[in-house]
Amino acid sequence: MALPTLIELAESGAHFGHHRSLTYPKAKGFVFMVKSNVALIDLEQTQNAIENAQKIIDAHRKSGKSILFVGTKRSIRGVVREVAESIGASFINERWFGGTLTNFATIEESIKRMTDIEEFLAGPKAAKLTKKDRLMTERKLARYHRFLQGLAGLKAMPDLIILASASEDGIAIAEANQLDIPVMAITDTDMNPDKVTYPIPANDDAPKAVELILRAMVEVPGSKKAKVEAEVEEVSEETPEEPKAEKKASTKKTAAKEVKEPKKAAKKAEPKAAKKPAAKKATKKTK
User: Fold this and answer.
1) If you ran DSSP here, which 8-state letter would residue 248 be given?
2) Are the C-beta atoms of residues 9 and 43 closer than 8 Å to each other?
3) Measured between alpha carbons, how far is 90 from 174 in angstroms, rounded to an integer?
4) Cβ atoms of 162 and 200 closer than 8 Å
5) HSE-up (13 A, CA, CB side) for residue 251
6) CB 189 within 8 Å of CB 22
7) Cα-Cα-Cα-Cα dihedral of 59, 159, 161, 54, to 10°?
8) Tens digit of each residue's pLDDT (9 = 90 or more) over 164-193
9) What span, in angstroms and rounded, lies between the C-alpha atoms of 137 and 172?
10) CATH, domain range 103-155
11) Cβ partners under 8 Å of residue 216, min gap 6
12) Could you tell me the residue ranges of all domains in the chain?
């Protein structure tokens, strides 16, 4: 399934927006209706936005352009990393440092320092360190890995930034707009969609919805994954015929049992019919 269906999006909770008093005026174009004072998102627009995102990401990958995934919410950190690594993209899933884009030279220096420590610990000079010094350098490297490991493969400014939540990482959007870097983000009804180049209207507070959309974005219609899943669906449609044969066999067994049961009932009824004349003879003798 390269593109999620409307039912799958609804089951994941992608259609739930915010209270209508918190709905941004420019986001009303994404609202299908308001029910119980809660804005419900039009999932057809969400589906079209995901399809457009697939084409854009595929074009960037084919042309060799760099993509940066950003998702700092605790509930989606693992998903952001998996999706980014599946296509060989960079990612930030712990914390967005202010100036990551506007002061990218400082980030590059920190990445270089991280690689230098890795090479030092892997070399022969690390064996001469004391236990305390080695522990301190390993702790320093672990901190670098936590915040900058996802940016190790980023050699220049990213050509596209994909946000798992536009409202959570507003600083990233501000920096990207300042440098004219296109932004693709899941935008809820409380967010101004004009700040995002490619908005995807959906509930960014539902982890299942965010995971479903992110995984669908990196897939392309006609890819190997889509073909395999289509074959699985075809096989699953053909297999339900076997249970029907089992049902027929079970019905035959039950019918055979029903035929046997009346015979037993007839045998049991015969002795009762024989006893009745004896009872009449007994009454004649008494008279």
Assistant:
1) H
2) yes
3) 19
4) no
5) 6
6) yes
7) 0
8) 999 998 999 999 999 999 999 999 999 999
9) 30
10) 1.10.287
11) 1, 2, 3, 4, 50, 54
12) 6-101+157-226, 103-155
Q: Return d(Cα 133, Cα 139) in angstroms, integer.
A: 10
The CA radius of gyration of the chain, in Å to the nearest whole number, is 34
* Closest-CA residue to 183 (of 165, 201, 162, 168): 162
Nearest to 178 by CA among 195, 154, 193, 194: 195
Total-model pTM:
0.73
**Helix (H, G, I), strand (E, B), or coil: what is residue 59?**
helix
> Which two three-digit tokens encode residue 31?
């609202």
Residues listed for the chain = 287
**Distant-in-sequence, close-in-space partners of 57: CB < 8 Å, separation ≥ 6:** 67, 87, 160, 162, 184, 217, 218
- Crossing angle (nearest 10°) for helices 104-122 and 131-148: 140
The per-residue b/e assignment along 270-283, b for 16 or more CB within 10 angstroms, e otherwise, is: eeeeeeeeeeeeee
CB 222 within 8 A of CB 172: no
CA separation, residue 257 to residues 142, 239, 243, 251, 261 (Å): 72, 29, 21, 10, 6
For 111, the enclosing helix (H) or strand (E) is helix 104-122
Q: What is the pLDDT of residues 118-170, one digit of tens each?
A: 999 988 888 888 899 999 999 999 999 999 989 988 888 999 999 999 999 89
Which tokens hold the place of 236? 């699953």
Work out the angle at residue 89's Cα, subtended by the Cα atoms of residues 88 and 93, and round it to the nearest 5 degrees: 125
Residue whose structure tokens are 């980014």? 84
Q: CB neighbours (10 Å) of residue 6? A: 13
CATH topology for the 6-101+157-226 domain: Rossmann fold (3.40.50)
